[in-house]
Amino acid sequence: FEIVYTNMLNCKKTRKNVEAALDAIDSYLAERVALFNPVIEHLREVGEARSCTEIENHFERNFGIDCITTACEYLADRGLIGRASTPLKVTKRSNIEVQEVAFVYLGEGADEF
Description:
CATH architecture of the largest domain: Orthogonal Bundle
Number of strands: 3
Shape: elongated
Number of domains: 2
Distance between the termini: 23 Å
Number of helices: 5
CATH superfamily of the largest domain: Winged helix-like DNA-binding domain superfamily/Winged helix DNA-binding domain
Strand content: 15-25%
Helix content: 40-55%
CATH class of the largest domain: Mainly Alpha
Structural class: alpha+beta
Largest sheet: 3 strands, antiparallel
Strand order of the largest sheet: 1-3-2
């Protein structure tokens, strides 16, 4: 807490201090990676890429958890799940599609930290 919060508020923001804070956050999350298992399990069960909207809706509806996309981004950065994209219509009646960030389970062995 001190490195991440207090030092960042009260000390000079040097590259070394910022890197120390980011390393502390990374270590904290790495020690608790099992907390992200429901995300990995969900993607394993569905067996295909799911848009961040679909994932957000699933976790909000079933677990009351929102902002799960941030966890997915973290897991993708760590190589525990894959990042992809899925088409999304701009409006319900639109013919225009854009790409939405999606995530996919990578298979066995990928979920080892």
